[in-house]
Amino acid sequence: MRLTDCRYDRDRLRLEIAYRLIGYEVRTETIRQCTQLSADRIRRLFRDYVRDQPQSRIRRRRGKSPRQMSFFLRTPRHELEAATMGSLLRACGLLGKTPLLHRLTLEEVARFCDVYDTFVTVCPAAAVTFEHAWYLMQVLARDDEYALTPCNECGALWVRDRLDLVPVVCATCRWPLELPDPRRGQGITCEDGC
Question: Strands 146-150 and 157-161, how do they pair?
Fold first, then answer.
């Protein structure tokens, strides 16, 4: 340890990340995995610094964290959000180098938080929560059943199920060419109004 290092920097970073994750409404177990803080310490942090704030609308989620890839395949919108998140993870170095079978460092968790903030900026009304994105990163890092691959038609990155027997293309290429017309409640084709 160097003389210029502060011996409490790691603890301060751990608490900053925990506070940030509470702001994302992340479950206690996920915060515990990310920061190595005890569940009791996380609950006290929420109680002492968040719950009694008058402007705070943060609520604590209960139950198990999301653990199903079917969430990302529900609709084309979900698929596009998963592809966007995966692309941001790869661009920031959280995917593609080595399998993330080891525990992430605090710096990598902080970088993931930055990636999620960027994702929320790009997709403000996203269905993908922090915990969905966390699970997606873990699945894509394993690079076994699901992979972030380029589309055969347009070249865009998308989350592909490697066990699909029928080769398919990304959600953008599968979208119908008919757009809803809000004035008439009918669909207009691209030839009519685009």
Answer: antiparallel
